[in-house]
Amino acid sequence: MKVGDKKPYLPVFVGSTFSDLQPWRRSVRDALAQLEAIVRGMEQFGSKPGSPVDECLRVVSSCKVYIGVFGMRYGTVPDGHERSMTHLEYDEAQRVGLPALIYIIDEENQPILPKHVETGPGSGKLQQLKDELKRRHVVSFFTTPEDLRARILHDLPQLLKDIGADISGDIESLEATSDSEVLRQFAVLPKMFSGRTVVIEFVTHDAFRTAFPEECKALGLESGATVVASANSSTGTHLRVFGERDTALALCRLAKDTRVQARAVTAFGVYTRVDWGEHGPISTPDTESGLVIKEILRVEPVEDGDKKRRKPAS
Question: Are 109 and 143 in contact (CB under 8 A)?
């Protein structure tokens, strides 16, 4: 796209329940903002409590793409209807034939507050809806808000290509950023470049340890099921590498001086650090950043000569 050309008008409707998924809704908004060169600013973020049904469905039908984000709540059922607003929005997107990206929360790996888990009749309706989504679509399972954002940044440009949207130049520019460049940007501006999926290569020098609760809280990881270690990447970037559950177990099995290639997501978060002073606890805002390993692609031992070159000075 040349300077001065009109951007394509591609409104995106994001359907989800409201109160339980607000951090994830913000992550979707961030992803769409990052893709502003591709998706021109009129992203619609679904219904809010009290929104008229007809108006919500009209907005769905006016969009070009539907993104559905489904957690552990079925949602409010409007008067005179048997299905929730979120379910009705999905049905309308299907009725008008919108291309869809469907994301369902990973119930095995993402902790949810009990107040955000559907009970009663809505629980059965939610399960039926998820079963329908899995039959109709290639579903992606998400964990943290950062994980969801990374998935959308990966999936949406390809979907737009598939539907023939006239945006190839912008997508090529977006995809031209290399993983090493993303890591360099993330090291300087971790909040801005959080949620990016990268393939990294690093060498294990230190054993993985249990991640501290504040580290887990900041990055949306599961406390007591997450490990972390420091490592140097093949590009010379110093990394803090996290792994959760099955990935944590696999990382802990790695021998010292093993070269690892893995798919990871850049992550950044804020937490409150509590220190004890002369007059009691002192709370200080602090930040945490690192790479969360999602998939180990390859492992191999490091040759003796390579160990000497890569091992950091003590």
Answer: yes
